[in-house]
Design a protein that fits this description.
The complex is a heterodimer of chains A (91) and B (230). Chain A is 27% helix and 33% strand. Chain A contains two helices and three strands, in the order E-H-E-H-E. The longest helix of chain A has 16 residues. Chain A starts with a strand and ends in a 5-residue tail after the last strand. With 230 residues, chain B is an alpha/beta fold. Chain B has one domain: Class I glutamine amidotransferase (GATase) domain (Rossmann fold, 3-Layer(aba) Sandwich). Chain B has five helices and eleven strands; from the N terminus they run βαββαβαββββαβββα. The two termini of chain B are 19 Å apart. The chains are: A alpha+beta (91), B alpha/beta (230).
């Protein structure tokens, strides 16, 4: 097995479609105060960055997906997307 | 024998002594159970009280789900033992998958601290056993994330199976179908956002919470005669 390499992970968590988003709605209602009246569909979410030591891209993605599915997102109301890059590159 | 109640605490729980006092005054004995404990043996009922378990970091209840005690709580529940989650405890039980749905930020993003009217929707749960359907209770809420949500299929099931235990008379937080409390399929695990322990003495403005806690202790006595809980 190859030596583990370090991968940078970005997990984005957002509310599933159809789940009300009081935070997004409040942000949207505040925007006219900035003079912006054309902004619609605001949805608030969270993003998480971390590093993972893994054998390769696929291994890093598999581990990061466990983190996202088991902890970072609540599947009842949220969904997540995971992207993985070799650490040290531009993320 | 007076029922023994275990009150499960996490770092950041803050309603445990209120819960203990409220059930003691109804004749139960009660102890704290630390979240690092791996056993809940010897208890006839468990309460997961309110507060901010693990700082509510990530999501309320999201980290508490991984506390060692939760496996014991799940085993106790699976064996039919009465388990009630109040406020943050309700959030923990949903995150742990012991109850359906999730609790979102309140509609309007307001922290709510007020007494609300609740309607008992079923007498078939460990928290409402013997309490007539339609009974109205005045009990305080104290939360930012009490907006109950679930998908359409889950809501249909909850209604069909009469698993909505309590509804708000005037929905304060945007909860779907005005749901204030639900139970699991076996009806021995109940979660609710209102705080019955804060309505347990005339000095607190209401004693209606004692109606629910008394029902819980009754259920605990029944379940302890079975003595199957792990």
């Amino acid at each position: 097995m190859a030596d583990p390499a370090l991968f940078s992970v970005l997990v984005e968590v957002r509310l599933r479609e159809g789940i009300a988003d009081p935070q997004g709605a409040t942000i949207e209602r505040a925007l006219p105060a900035l003079g912006l009246t054309g902004v619609t569909g605001v949805r608030a979410g969270k993003s998480f960055r971390f590093d993972i030591a893994a054998a390769d891209d696929a291994d890093a993605l598999a581990q990061a997906t466990v983190v996202a599915d088991r902890l970072l997102a609540n599947p009842v109301i949220e969904e997540s997307s995971v992207t993985v890059h070799p650490a040290g590159g531009s993320a | 024998m007076a029922p023994r109640v275990g009150v499960v605490i996490f770092p950041g729980t803050n309603c445990e002594h209120d819960a203990i006092l409220a059930v003691q005054r109804l004749g139960a004995s009660a102890d704290l159970v630390w979240h690092g404990d791996t056993s809940v043996s010897g208890y006839d009922a468990l309460i997961l009280p309110g507060g901010f378990a693990h700082g509510d970091y990530l999501r309320p209840g999201a980290i508490a789900r991984f506390s060692p005690v939760m496996e014991a709580v799940a085993g106790f529940a699976a064996a039919g033992g009465p388990v009630v989650g109040i406020c943050n405890g309700f959030q923990v039980l949903t995150e742990a998958g012991l109850l359906p749905g999730a609790l979102q930020k309140n509609r309007g993003l307001r922290f709510l601290c007020t007494t609300v009217r609740l309607r008992v929707e079923t007498s078939d749960s460990v928290l409402t056993s013997g309490v007539a359907v339609g009974t109205e209770l005045a009990i305080p809420i104290n939360h930012f994330e009490g907006n109950y949500t679930c998908d359409v299929e889950t809501l249909a099931r909850l209604r069909d199976e009469e698993r909505v235990v309590l509804r708000y008379v005037d929905n304060p937080n945007g909860s779907v179908d005005s749901i204030a409390g639900v139970c699991n399929e076996a009806r021995n695990v109940v979660g609710l956002m209102p705080h019955p322990e804060r309505a347990s003495d005339p000095l607190l403005g209401s004693v209606d919470g004692s109606v629910l806690l008394r029902a819980l202790l009754g259920s605990a006595t029944l379940s302890s005669s079975g003595e199957s809980a792990a």
